[in-house]
Amino acid sequence: MSSEIDRHKSDKIALRWTDDHESNGTITYAELMKQVNKLAGGLDRLGLAKGDRVLVMVPRQVEAYVIYIACLKLGLVIIPSSEMLRAKDLSFRLNHSEARAVIAWADGTREVDSITEELPALRYRIDASGRSTAGWLAMQELMDGQQEEREAVPTLRDDMAILAYTSGTTGNPKAVVHSHGWGYAHLRITSAWLDIRETDLVWGTAAPGWQKWIWTPFLSVLGSGATGFIYQGTFSAERYLEMIQTHRIGVMCCTPTEYRIMAKLDTLGDYDLSSLRSSVSAGEPLNQAVIHKFQELFGFIIRDGYGQTESTLLIGNLKDEPVKLGAMGKSIAPGLVEIIDEEGRPLPAGEVGSIAVHGAMPALFHTYYRDPQRKANNMVGSYFITGDRAKRDEDGYFWFEGRGDDIIISSGYTIGPFEVEEALLRHPAVKECAAVASPDEIRGHVVKAFIVLKDQTAASPALMKELQDHVKSWTAPYKYPRRIEFISDLPKTNSGKIRRIELRERETRNYSQGE
Questions:
Q1: Domains of the chain as residue ranges with CATH
Q2: CB of 178 within 8 A of CB of 368?
Q3: pLDDT tens readout for residues 283-318
């Protein structure tokens, strides 16, 4: 996978960045690769070898690109990890993967240090933020004295490259195995969607630690020889629009939530977005009204795309194809994605079924790490079931209908109900609880928790806030329940299982009725 990036050894600008304080900078492909090779030399000198797992938790910085490419050149397996993960999340990933090293930024080092469980496989802790703290090696010191030229360790198509953890409906996160061959397939599959050219300045707003960052800001930008734009700051609709205008962004990949907030600005039409020739959205369906607003004001259409951590882009509104507002788009190749019934049979146009990807797709993941049966359980005939439901029209366009399971997607984040419920149940006031997706105008959906208290008279706004803060302290804060409702009983099956679907459908019904 690294050779797709390594081949661009020129004085062309690889990355351009800015921050909240108007600091700006650039780095060329040649200089980027020098830093990559020096870090690879340092990691090699430590004793890290092909196949070793390395957990990486860094922000939107040039260092993220250096770390990822260096690991790939050595044949190390990257575990992308969000900066928002807490000690509990990190402990599971480190032990489950048997990671030999962790590379983290300042806040991440503190979370790792607060882990109380044993980490028997972990040998090296590397601080990427330029500090030298107790128990941690400074990344820059590893690079000092290393050669600026280095050959990549030979890797095969099926060798593991990425180990991405994604939420499940029950239990701990699943570990998705992607190979080096996946990277090549991804670049070729997404080219007709992103439409990146070598002359483009490309801004993908996703943060390192998410598969979407690997998709666009990392692989698609550098693998195309384009220039990536990095914003090292917090989201503001006005700031985003100013940067598109000032830096003349050519290709943009945002979350639906970011587009929705920008679309609500009364001053949206005052900005000059004429540089944008390709604008895409992914993570969850984007509202037709938002797409129409940008089209009306600026003349371009935001093109939706659909994929999963387990694959890459599966369905999309591709360049030069007519766009049907509200549709997910078409399959990236005929027969690759189908709508099937419970027996694995493709359904006719207009009928709702499961979105399924053919098992022979080159960018489909290899397996779930240490749980190979899980993938087999999600196969129906020749197809892997995505967990989403849709229908397809006579023209081949897919129309999203909803999740087929209890997974919650909020602002593009995938959240398993188990993770929220586990955190809530650790609070002494909670007897039972259920977390479901609740429709939201801006975020698409938010997490809502239905809670049965041990003492129902204790229900209060103050307790709601306490429970929300409790979840934030226990697991990644984006998983916390933005809405809480105290109830006396949860709906259950005859065997005692919580019927989250009943709660979820109630939320959808109330939202459609404006309650």
A1: 1-178 (3.40.50.12780), 408-512 (3.30.300.30)
A2: no
A3: 888 888 899 999 999 999 999 999 999 999 999 999
